[in-house]
Amino acid sequence: MRRFLSFFLLSFLSFCVAASDYHEQLVLRPLPLSALLASFNFRSNTSLSAFEAHNYRFFPRSLGQILQHAGTRELHLRFSLGRWDAESWGARPWDGAKEGGTGVELWAWLEAASEDEADHKWLTLTNALSGLFCASLNFIDGTRTTRPVMSFRPEGNHPSSNSTNMRLFYGVLPREVVCTENLTPFLKLLPCKGKAGIATLLDGHKLFDASWQSMAIDVRPVCLPGEECILEIEQTIDMVLDIDRSTRPRDNPIPRPPPGHELKCDTSKPYHSDDTCYPAEYGANQQWSLAQIFGRPMKGTCPLSDPKIPPVCLHVPDSRGVYTSGGVETITSKDGLSRCFKVQPEAEFDLVLSHVETEGVAPPALAGSIIKPETPSLYAERSFTGYGQERGGVQTILRNPSPDKEVEFVYMESLPWFMRIYLHTLKARLDGSLTEQTSLIDEVYYRPALDRARGTQLEIRMRVPPSSTVFLTYDFEKSILRYTEYPPDANRGFDVAAAVITILDDDDDAKSTPGGSASVSSSNLRTTTLLLSLPTPDFSMPYNVIIFTSTAIALAFGGMFNILVRRFVAADEGPEVSLKRLKTRLQTKLGGLFKKLGKAELKNE
Amino acid sequence: MNGGEVTLGRTARLYIGAAVLRLALFTIFPGLPDLLTGRVEVSTPVTSFKRLQEGLFLYNHNVSPYDGGVYHQAPLFLPLFSLLPSSATFPIFTYLLYVAVDLLSADALLKIADSGEAVSSRLFTSPRREKRWSGFVIAAVYLFNPFTIATCLGRSTSVFTTCAILHAISKAIAGAPISAMIALSFASYLSMYPLLLLPPLLLLGYDRRPAADRTSPIAFTSKHVLVVAGIHSALFGMSYLITGSWEFLRSTYGVQLTLSDLTPNVGLWWYFFIEMFDSFRSFFLAVFWLHLSSYVGGLCVRIRTQPLVVLTLLLGIFAIFKPYPSIADVSLFLAMMPLYRHVFPLMRYTFVVAAVVMYATFLGPAFYHLWIYAGSGNANFFYAITLVWGLGLSLMVCDLTFAILRDEWEVERPEMVGKEIRQI
């Protein structure tokens, strides 16, 4: 996979030299378990001088103006949903460089002379992007912004800017629900606005129904030696569709178990008989068409895009038959593992992938139907440990599948302030051993959270030895908030942003040298987000609490005051108890009144 | 055993017994210290040992512990605990330190009790002075009080404040007001609220000076206030040198003043300020602090004749109404209570108070469990029990005040002993 993508990357780069400057491509790749990875890539360039002179051709003006206003040199924005199942799907597309954690992620390099100016520009940027993408990016405030020191590196070339003035900001909104309203502005940034070309396949119903999807926007300056610097915007959508789910008929969308005679059974199982069936793994071998999967066929090509680049590529072994609509030129790669299709500009394009004819009922392996996914260099999963709403722990399991190569990476967490972590409890241990292994952690950068002002930032540079598993654990305490600080559904919990793992390559230094490759390849992966439940107060009774506490204080103060200021007398001394005195007073007064009345009556008589 | 050791023997045995009990609990139940450290009744954000360890870890790794929301304790703890071997590997040194601090507190308490200041001060001598407990009994009550033991096992840093306060009182009684002021400065440096004990402590120190030394009260006061200010500035200066910035002021005293950390505790503040409307938060913070400090003047004026009583009552009030109270503060108040054994017969609600305190002690952890772990109760359960606890303790403080004042009054009216009285 990586090889292919880098091949395409390189081919794109070679085209960048020519200044025409919009490319789009869709790469389809069936994955095991009836999943299909669809990677849409749109890339356009403008020269930096044209950009600075406010001449926009392919570069979207709306975004360009925001970037200029906020002094942004490089921008990365991600909208993601779902979970990449690395165990079955293998390595991530683009090596994870174009994905984000669930929710919205934004990181950018801003050029500013001072910290205050940088903060101000970041605020401007988040607010403007919030309006542009209909996302709550304006909620990326001080508590959600971190300044990573080890995890991110500029992908573009920044020869002209003074590197001390480039400031990196990273903000994340794990709770943001990515939805159609974010897709529409995303498509509007494209030169063909989603009316022609591969973007016509993007339908909100299908995209947000995917098992995993990630929309990415990357803006970076690229300078090749001896040429004018260009500003490159790359928009990427990666999605993993469930073929069964997508091909379900619209008028009958409820999944039902197939009747017995249609079940595909694994006949190699010893218990296989007429009435027992172990479902065979046939999903990857299914037949599907583009129109079925995406709900519509592709409408021609975008006339602005580079005609030399085939718009659709499919990664399946040559043994699988592919049928296309008329007038399509098929280019088969030499290794026989992929083919690309050149589409007529005005015609509708559809593609049917047939299933492999297998003799007998049990296909022995997937070998014939799909390309086996590449093993990722690291598996990571993160979860909470402990119980109760007072304290807990975080455990990240990092597994290196490679038999001979050590993986070195930076693990970054950006946690909300109400999760008070205890760094002294941070431990890394190898699977199978109970003792801590300090040698696994090379370097820790820690910026503690400050209540209501900023979140925790934790970056750990560490290593996992070959074919071993490392458990990284730490404890935290859940703090209780003011009742106004809870969201409306407080008992749902709070989302904790995904941990970002940046794998450091051995030859990383060579690649990042200025003037070398335009784009520094970085390999990332992200864990899932976590749901943190905090203790909650009773939201219904602020008045009652104020009244009860005030009463308790008044009782204590009143009792004390009473004892301190009043005099002691014997029980039978001093003035009488007020009730008795009141009674006698009343009696005397009433008696007098009756007497007076009696006298008056007597007089009247 | 020879004759010389016999006189010391009883107290020494008491101390050894208390130390052995604590060390035995530490070693027989190795999980107990950490369990108690995690209890909200024992550890508050400003005294928790776990937070101290985190602060220490950050301090040892050159991250300012005050640039974060976890560590809110005094900076001088950091070098002190860095000198000790790490409590994770050699916990015994930490245990020994805490046991020693407890014993030092008990020793100060023993001196306070043996001085007889509680029954007979310069301006007042109780008619019941014969009926008092010896220092040995009072130290034993302190050392074997379950609250004290729990605080010691939980390694709450409030034991240092307790020790400093008791030493300040004992030094003032011993006629060494300067030492008393130094000890008080340490106490208020560690947890701020003991500064409110300065007026009664000045009165106590003034009363306990030999008659010849008793110069004008104004000169005495200004001299000792200057001492307190001087020691404070020295301590702050040292803290500044240790941490390299003044951030610690905001993070230690600012947190107590503004209650930004709302972790539950046995006091009344946390839930009140969780539920408080944002626009009234600062107003009520001011009111609560004003309330806490309002007792000082009144008690000093009304019970001028017995400054030690004022100190005791104030400690009781602080244990209820300070921002982050814990059972450590109650154990300090309960340590001073037995000094007034002679007025116990005058107290009216001993049974009610004892019952309420026991009730809250047992139900508090249960209700906390229901809220936090079982999920079958909500925050109001624990809040209700803190209210009961606060009311019970305030009844105890009021009752003690009543008994003291009645004892005073019976000097004027000896014929009223044992008769029914009322207040007008």
UniProtKB/TrEMBL annotation, chain A:
One Gene Ontology biological process: attachment of GPI anchor to protein
Chain segments annotated as transmembrane: 543-565
GO CC aspect terms: GPI-anchor transamidase complex
Keywords per UniProt: Membrane, Signal, Transmembrane, Transmembrane helix
Keyword check for Membrane: yes
Annotated signal sequence range: 1-19
Record bears the keyword Signal: yes
PANTHER family according to UniProt: GPI TRANSAMIDASE COMPONENT PIG-T, GPI TRANSAMIDASE COMPONENT PIG-T-RELATED
Stated name of the protein: Gpi16 subunit, GPI transamidase component
TrEMBL record, chain B:
Keyword Transport: no
Main location: endoplasmic reticulum
Membrane-topology descriptor: Multi-pass membrane protein
Pathway membership, UniProt: Glycolipid biosynthesis; glycosylphosphatidylinositol-anchor biosynthesis
Localisation: Endoplasmic reticulum membrane
Family stated for the protein in its record: Belongs to the PIGU family.
Name of the protein in question: PIG-U-domain-containing protein
